[in-house]
Amino acid sequence: MVPFMHLTSTAPATEGGVPIVFLHGMTSSGARDWPAQHWADICVRGGRPAHVFDLPAHGNSAEVTAPDAVSIEKIVDHVIALADDAGGTIDLVGYSLGARLAWACAARHPAKIRRLVLGGISTRDPLAVVDYEAAHQFIDTGVTPADPVTARISGLVAGTDMPHSVLHMMQGIGVDRFDPQAESPKGETLFVAGEADPMCTQIEDLCALVPDSQLVRVPGDHQSALRAPEFQQAALRFLSVQA
Question: How many angstroms separate the CA atoms of 243 and 41, rounded?
Fold first, then answer.
């Protein structure tokens, strides 16, 4: 059976330190956002187990046949179950949608997340306002949705292997609207934002909600900032991994 969230794990030859878990962005995959040679392999060489998830309907994870098959709580539960299996505590790294989900993990289970890296996170919550009926219609017919947010997201989803499945996942997540004032992490947190990323123009507002946090800006927009060497360097340094 294809898992709800496919997991790729690598571990040091000897018992390692606190595991590091990675969550990717929307319409991407674990392997694409977190290529092993730049992340997991370095973590393992530094004595840290690394776990890379594929979100539902992405990468090697299962197809999502209906919106109610996915929720933020179900994804959080998968991550926290891994933390429990790994000894109770993990470091968590997320980008874009993965950062939104990592935020929820840390806010709802603060004792399980030691350090948190949030890249490309936005105060906005587009998944809560998408016209999903129009988005599905676009996939089937090519008719561009009138709503610009829906049109932009529909165009992104159309290029995936399972576009309807991805839309179901987004709709299931979008039910739980992002409200950072209502729940926010309390532990050590690193925010990373691309200098030209329009998604992160209000990231300081999120930083203000997390007392033990710091913000690093790196070159690039929302797509390229994740690839910037400065992103990797800042994240690994924060996680105490020797690159």
Answer: 10
